[in-house]
Amino acid sequence: MAEKTFYNPSVGVWVAIEEPNAEVMATYPAGTVEIPSQPSVLHTWNGSSWDAPTTDAIRARQAEIARARRDDMLRYQVDPVVTNPLRWAALSEAEQQEVSAYRQALLDVTNQAGFPQNINWATRPSVLPAIKVEWDENIL
To answer: In this predicted model, what pLDDT tens digit does every residue of 7-36 receive, in sequence order?
Structure first.
């Protein structure tokens, strides 16, 4: 199966997950043309070719990805411990301070001078669960 990308001035860009047959193509609006596949999610179609993303668009996407990563770390590592009174009470005072500092470091990621390109991720305290999250840093 090969994806096909189409453009129509009235509709915009869309992708067919397989090559459409003549019957399906007949339902496409007049003026529809096949175009090259979108190079990345940030490229925009200008009516005749794909425009590369702006630096601002790239930085915004990097920030979105970094925030999502941070939010997952909070949601799956920190919150299950700090929002559960029994788990929290089972930690020593030193462990609670370590978890609190880690949580604050995650919340402060967006305040780092290198955000979103260069982030120094805090080290997870050993009392928090490890999570396996695959992050493609080149998901632009």
So the answer is: 999 999 999 988 899 999 999 999 999 999
